[in-house]
Amino acid sequence: MGVFVFFMKKVDSLFLVDGSNFYRKLKSLGLKNLSRFNFNQLALLLNPDLTSYQINYYVGAVKDRDTKKGERLYRKQQSMLANLKKQNVKYFLGYLLKTEGHYHEKGVDVKLAVDMVTTAYEKKAKKIFLISSDTDILPAVRIARSKGVIVIYVGFKHQVSRALIHACSKYVLLTKKELKNLSL
């Protein structure tokens, strides 16, 4: 995976998107075409008063192209990454580890948490919008808040993380109707 040092200009708002978590939530709503999803419009929906912001997207890289399914997933991910690039969304790739026939994403939650803590310590953003329902990120949330950063949990009304609601400064719960309107 290599070493990546997090560099970021100072912004008012940083949006951290746990890609697989986000995709699973969209898919559970019947919305699964990330190659046409407008992340900048999502940022504006979440914070209409945006002045300066950055969106980071974290996901495990699909590399297994030895099967038809693997090749299809790879093509879909490449299309989604091209969409992110077009929108100036920074993306960070973890990796997928295959154990007992199942794939497990590795390095993604840790990278997101490290970026959250680094942002807080370096005072690079006033607000962090956490678009993930993964409670593994709770320690990073607590650290960021202790450094004075407003951490906003962005969840989904149909599948809420109560632990993140309680740990974050604020929360926003998205609906299918709101998300459906965010395609390019």
Number of strands: 7
**What about the largest sheet?**
7 strands, mixed
Do you know the CATH topology?
Answer: Rossmann fold
Question: What structural category characterises the helix and strand content?
Answer: alpha/beta
Overall shape? globular
- What gyration radius follows from the Cα positions, in whole Å? 16 Å
CATH-derived architecture: 3-Layer(aba) Sandwich
Describe the structure.
This protein is α/β, with parallel strands linked by helices and 184 residues long. The protein has a single domain, classed as 3-Layer(aba) Sandwich (Rossmann fold), CATH 3.40.50. The chain is 39% helix and 28% strand. The protein is built from seven helices and seven strands. It has helices at residues 19-28, 39-46, 68-86, 108-121, 138-146, 162-167, 176-180; strands spanning 11-18, 53-61, 90-99, 102-106, 125-131, 150-156, 170-174. The protein has a seven-stranded mixed β-sheet with strand order 4-3-2-1-5-6-7, with helices on both faces. It is globular, with a radius of gyration of 16 Å. The chain starts with 10 loop residues before the first strand and ends with a helix.
